[in-house]
Design a protein that fits this description.
This protein has one domain. The relative contact order is 0.28. Strands 2, 4, 5, 8, 9, 10 and 12 form a seven-stranded antiparallel sheet that branches. By secondary structure, the chain is an alpha+beta fold.
Length: 278
Amino acid sequence: MMTQPADADARRAAPPVICYPVHDLPLEDVANLPLEPDDLTKRSEVLVPPREARTFHVAAGQMFRITSVEGPQVGDLNLWNAHDLTERFFSGKTRALHGTHVTTGDRLWSCLPHLRPMASVVHDTLGWYGIDQYGGSVHDVIGTRCDPYTHNLLSGGQYHHCCHSNLTRALAGETGLSLHDAEAHIHDVLNVFMCTGFTRDTGQYFMKASPVRPGDYIDFIAQIDLLGALSACPGGDCSAEHSSDEATCHPLLIEVFDTPLTGQSPAPVNGYDRSHGR
């Protein structure tokens, strides 16, 4: 090991500073909009089979709900601008703005150069979980999605029901793109219902049994017209492994509702002029 400098303790003791204080965000706070059951009119639903993915559409101002049905199950969520697949969910900036896990009041942000809210979390029945003794929490934006490339790297073989492949097939089926072209649009996910964190000693990404139970759900208000895709992860509740045909898996339900905000104008794109100093 390297010899510590004499002032090592003082360097470690430097206080942290929040990089992006979100209380200054100049945006309408739809995430805290009170919604009653009478405010919602159901328009569609999609049942996502275990170890598969399905797509869905949500208009600006509509709400979509992801619900655990039959048994504990986590899901990997991708979001795109319904009119432009190049604008997609940006997990890294969402993480930088809101933290490693999202819940009620947080927003899902799109990639540069758009950088606008795609959807806001308006209700989360697992909001009570908080951060546990291991540093774990629910609905993470730190995991990238299980994929067949990492599976091949670590275990060998060809596994086709990783969330990456599930999402690729679903997007190809929705858009008519080839699998090759669709795969280029698959991106880092919101891990819905997944309980994750980083180990204290090695800083490694971990997963543990999700606290989700049938009937738990998370609600989002769409702030632009969205195309979404959700994969019911082959890890089930991720208590032991993912990318597996052995784990017990269950379907996930997606429902889309009209709200008093349905038909609202989409959130504006970021105001930066893109001149980059020239």
